[in-house]
Amino acid sequence: MPRPEGSPVSSSTSTPALLEVRHLSRLDPSGSTLLLQPADFALMPGDQVAITGSSGSGKSVFLRTLSLLDAPSGGDLLWKQQTLTNDAIPHYRTCVSYLAQRPALIEGSVLDNLQFPYSLKSLKGRTFDRQHASDLLAQAGKEPVFLNKSAADLSGGESQIVALVRTLQLAPQVMLFDEPTSALDPQSAAAVEALVLHWFNAGAGSRAYVWVSHDPEQARRMSTRHLTMNKGVLQGASA
């Protein structure tokens, strides 16, 4: 379909976008209120984007819609310039991953949690690499014995590190971070940031992320592009 009027909020480059949305919107469950006003946005390889805004401004709504955890109410979402079919959504979610503020872990050990994604149908044919998982944990200051720790005994920071490693081990191209350190102590927050930057730099310019934060200093530290959300409207701002 033809591109709607208006330019996407993106960097000036001829490189194809990894992820692009055109007039993307999201209604509340009743269908009566627009939680996300029609938004144009393009995420390029190598982008480090931060989004800030007041509580309830629509930041989480935007990320959850980008990740297709919540279905868009209108507009188009393209992955590598292709419109997604329903059959392609499971694979899309292995390429574009969402990390929530509060991690959801299964019962069992850290190892059980890291192995869990490989039991999913969408990852059929992929196998768990214990050494790779251990290397990622080491980036966050965790020794191999940490794999044996019970998920029930983890602190909030440790739980978020496990949730992050569980995702990063799958080598997604795009990460959507929804205030991932807002409930963490400074040391745990620094470990999460370091692990994210390790994953990003390992992609040699092919990966990208969007980082939602309530902390302006963190937003500046973790991004080279800065957007704001105000009453469901995505707005561009200087980095």
- The first-level CATH class of the domain at 19-106 and 173-237 is given as Alpha Beta
* Main sheet makeup: 6 strands, mixed
**CATH-derived topology of the domain at 19-106 and 173-237:** Rossmann fold
| Structure summary, number of beta strands | 10
Separation, N- and C-terminal Cα atoms:
32 Å
How would you state the average pLDDT, rounded? Answer: 91
Q: What's the helical proportion of residues?
A: 25-40%
CATH superfamily of the domain at 19-106 and 173-237: P-loop containing nucleotide triphosphate hydrolases
SS strand fraction: 15-25%
Q: Catalogue the unreliable spans.
A: 1-13
Class of secondary structure makeup: alpha/beta
Number of helices in the DSSP assignment? 7
Which helices and strands appear, and what pairs or packs with what?
Blueprint: E1 19-27, E2 34-43, E3 48-52, H1 59-66, E4 74-79, E5 82-83, H2 89-95, E6 96-99, H3 110-115, H4 130-139, H5 156-168, E7 174-178, H6 186-202, E8 208-212, H7 216-221, E9 225-230, E10 233-237
Parallel strand pairs: 3-8, 3-9, 6-7, 7-8
Antiparallel strand pairs: 1-2, 1-4, 4-5, 9-10
Helix pairs in contact: 5-6
